[in-house]
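Researcher: Batch entry, complex prediction.
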Amino acid sequence: VDVSQSDLLTLYRFMLTARCVEEMLGKLPGFHPAVGEEAVPIGSFFGLKEGDYIAPHYRGAITAAYMRGADLRTLFAGVLGKATSHNLGRFRGDICMPIAYRVIGMYSGVLGSTISLATGAALSARVLRSDNVAVVSFGEGCSNLGAFHENINLAATLDLPVVYICQNNQFAMSTRATQSMRCSSVADRAIGYGIPGIRVDGNDVLAVHSAVQKAVSRARSHGGPTLIEALTYRVSGHYGSEQPTYQNADERESWKKRDPLARFQNHLESLALLDPATASQLADATRAMLSAAMNLARADPEPGHAELGEHQLFATPQAAAF
Amino acid sequence: MRRLTLQQAIVASISQEMQRDTRVFHIGQSIGSSFNGSMSSTKGLGDEFGTERVIDTPMSELAMVGAAVGAAISGTRPIVQVMFSEFLSLVMSPLACDAATIHYRSGGKACVPLVVRTLFGAGPHRGHPEDFHSWAASVPGLKVIMPSTPRDAKGLMTSAIRDDNPVLFMEHMGLYHGAREAVPEEEFTIPLGVADIKRAGRDVTVVAIGMLVPLAIKVAEALRSQSVDVEVIDLRTVVPLDKDTVIASVAKTGRLVVASETWSCGDSMAEVMATVAEALCTTRAVPMARVGVTQVPRPFAMALERMTMPNEEKLVCAIMHVMNRPTSSSADNHGVLE
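Model: Structure tokens for the complex:
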């Protein structure tokens, strides 16, 4: 897949934004940071069409929604549970994304749900005879759930236009991937469904982007689903304040050396598209933009009775936007 | 007017709604033209609409309901068949945790126009009788429907398909190919949340659902000879509950019996009793009783099934109990009056 010079720089800006978002929000105790895993969401959800649906893994979802056009202040208000958030404070905005941007989030704490929802978006595309696709990412822990197996098999049998991306950071909370499956790669599981299974370097944003774009083209041309494993590593705890004592420190340090942002920056510098001084300025500007958005979100009002919405449990006919 | 069975009436509604709205599609296992659904529950739909809109799936209930929820939030209006109510155990995550929550948690920006239809109840094939509708009824954000007559079934199914919320539609296998009723050929709706007084009476209110409705009507006729005038209310929609109709009836009769074909412990009908008790507690004491199935897993042997099932005798016993006219058999009717 060819990526234009301007797209390379756009990808870099998104990678940088993701890093700064994850570092900033990772300071919140309940947030699940994606530091070191950013290449997977950025590479996966870049270059899609407006009509496509994405269902990003909660680890990295904020920047994925931002890439689809959602503004950061409102997204941050969601993380803080403010009245101004897309969810009106009714659900945690770090995992529940704004549907108006065709970003499918979690509506419960049950992992694997987004695999089902994305499969359903592909089913809608089929029924409505549109050429939209659905792209969903999830952790490798989810590949042990029934939702993973049932939905991929269903999508395979119906040739649905959906791309399944496993963001394999090698840990489901404290459970190592090697303890929870006997095959060497989640991609190998594709054999059981009769669909392509692709393994990519999840710390290489261009490799992820290329693999996903090929799978998207295949899906869009009625070729059916693809399962991609993007191998990466969780260099933080499961959530912001958790210490990953179950990780090997040497292993973690070796993965930190494969940092996807630094690698991409080096790549762009080697192409003379970026220089260290510009990168540093961009990073400062990005952090300033995020702090400004966060300060506005922090000043937003807390939700009250209007947002509790005891009488808004059910959609009324007027509410049907579709 | 055509006289249809409950099964025919439901299929007629789905067919009409699929003709009317191309966003409506049906998904489930063995629902297409090669099998036409368990107990003919989708008879003719596969031939009429083809495999693109009557979609056969692998035996994967979690995926069919989960994907249907995803389809519902992305522009279509799926009807899923979860073959039997037992299999609701496999789909509670997408149904109760996602379908039920999405409209609310999206701040009203998404809705889930989804119908999950499922067979249950003691029927001709003697399998899968379990009625688990109360699981869904206990979750905010799901509507639950249980029709007892063919006409109601058609009007309620049409409303369910047109509703922008997730609806669980319970289809009783004992009623499925049973009594026929005149059912309008044209489209019509019966609003969700409106109970139907199937028989007016002055002395005691029986609130029933599903198979217990015809049973209650039969018992009501039988009790005329004992000068007991029974009002039979068919809830039709368990959620939303038609509180007004139920409370007005019990305010009139002063007595309440609830009847369903599920375990009384945790039954949605307990909510009916609580609603009445709360509404009328300052004005009058209301004698209440309930009839359900015995609190054991549904047994197989006919003899055991008969013992556990609600029947005329148990319902009469409950009615006479709230009338304060105990029957001779009431003492050994375990599991009826609790």
